[in-house]
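Appendix C: a fully annotated inverse folding record. The material below is reproduced so that readers can follow the format used throughout the book. The structure is listed first as tokens, followed by the designed sequence.
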């Protein structure tokens, strides 16, 4: 499987998820708009280990939605959630939308 991107959120396929199960399916929240990247349908679990989130899609697919982006279908499997960063003269910062 190839990485999947929706805005500043990138999902990288991995062989196995790990971490503590979270009670929500929000992968990232926008600091400026308050919009969020979240799973709206399909069976999935979001786990956290350290500063890293992992998504486990249990159903055949799950739907990743955000108010400013097209919905993205995520196939069944294990994914590492990464937030895109950009460099500024003051240092690296996470991109927010």
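Designed amino acids, in order:
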């Amino acid at each position: 499987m190839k990485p999947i991107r929706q805005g500043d959120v990138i999902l990288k396929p991995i062989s196995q998820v790990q971490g503590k199960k979270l009670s929500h399916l929000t992968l990232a929240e926008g600091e400026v708009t308050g919009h969020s990247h979240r799973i709206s349908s399909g069976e999935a679990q979001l786990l956290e280990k350290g500063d890293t989130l992992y998504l486990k899609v249990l159903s055949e697919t799950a739907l990743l939605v955000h108010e400013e982006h097209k919905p993205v279908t995520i196939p069944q499997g294990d994914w590492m959630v990464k937030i895109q960063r950009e460099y500024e003269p003051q240092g690296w910062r996470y991109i927010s939308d």
